Amino acid sequence: EMEFMGTVTIDDFYSGHAAALAGGTTMHIDFVIPVNGNLTAGLESYKHKAEKAAMDYGFHMAITKWNDEVSREMEVMVKEHGINSFKFFMAYKGSLMVTDDLLLQGLQKCKSLGALAMVHAENGDAVAEGQQRMIDLGITGPEGHALSRPPVVIPLS
């Protein structure tokens, strides 16, 4: 039930878990997206969604903005909720993408907490430009995804 850039995933915890269990997967770790940058509100939202869970699950936490409150909430996530991994997106400009400064501050905070940092490493600006180019060319199907991310973009991240 993840909301993302004007869409919502088709599976909820139950239907996604049922499909995963049918394939032999018995554990799911989902990314919690903060609500307006608030980690605690995001976690509460995902806990509610997870009431439909059909297998063991856990959470990672996305970091989408930075301030003293987010820094404090990261510590609470680790110490009180057992969430010890945080994801930073260098992609999805205008949605989840973080600045280089935010990324560095977040990585330092992860280090101080002994938490795992994960990075979705794409050059968000270059990808956004590529996406616009595909739209301008009228390429709006699935093939546009790969075409908007040429291999040269990866070393830029």
UniProtKB/TrEMBL annotation:
Q: GO MF terms on file?
A: dihydropyrimidinase activity
Give the source's domain of life in one word.
Eukaryota
Which processes are annotated in GO (biological process)? pyrimidine nucleobase catabolic process
Q: Where are the transmembrane segments?
A: none
Q: Which residues form a coiled coil?
A: none
Single GO cellular component annotation? cytosol
Tell me which InterPro entries the record gives. Metal_Hydrolase (IPR032466), Metallo-dep_Hydrolases_sf (IPR050378)
Supply the Gene3D superfamilies for this chain: Metal-dependent hydrolases
What family is this? Belongs to the metallo-dependent hydrolases superfamily. Hydantoinase/dihydropyrimidinase family.
Q: What is the name listed in the Swiss-Prot or TrEMBL entry for this protein?
A: Amidohydrolase-related domain-containing protein
